[in-house]
Predict the 3D structure of the following.
Amino acid sequence: GSQINVPIIWVLGGPGSGKGTQCDKIVAKYGFTHLSSGDLLRNEVSSGSPRGQELSAIMEKGELVPMEVVLDLLKEAILKSLPNSKGFLIDGYPREKEQGVMFEKNISPVDLVLFFDASEETLVKRLLGRAETSGRVDDNEETIKKRLHTFNTHNDQVISQYTAKLKRINAERDVGAIFQEVESYLDPLVA
Ligand code: UP5
Ligand code: MG
């Protein structure tokens, strides 16, 4: 059985749907450990390792890096934080059906899947806004299109696996209204 006795929450949604923004608010209220798959990959890139260079090229194209890379990074980060974690927010993973299967097989079953749902128009608008300050190599019009394409290719397959645990949240609203709904799903987990 799993050695992990705290909640595991996957935080999903298209590029710019507000995964990171909502995770920050969840951390502030619930003290969960926030692990952003994208941040873990970007840290690997900053480290300047040969593997980092390969990852950077893939991310600049808006494509998915090999599953094993992300799964290893996540597993390492989870094990490191496990002794004092109240729960884990896994932000931006899984991005393909198989990635979810492998996570649950190799790390732990998931307790809750939050899916932030917003239109492409909204996503593009937010990402172009963030592009002014983010410094992210994938925040440009061309790569944003490819990120959306990658997301649209896989998302239905991913979330259709998690009917009972899936909470589909209208992410077109303001940050506070979205968070209120998020709280309604998290409060029961920590009660
Ligand atoms: N904003 C947020 N919420 C708002 C709201 N309700 N109203 C108005 N504005 C709102 O938010 C984006 C912007 O919108 C911000 O300016 C924010 O203020 C505003 P943010 O919270 O950053 O959205 P988020 O969903 O986190 O967007 P992000 O760009 O991080 O999502 P991606 O899924 O594109 O990026 P990620 O870092 O997860 O992945 C990057 C790349 O890594 C992928 O493209 C892929 O190449 C690679 N990757 C893999 O290959 N495999 C993985 O498993 C993970 C990543
Ligand atoms: Mg993010």
Observations:
- Strands lie at 8-13, 33-36, 88-91, 112-117, 166-170.
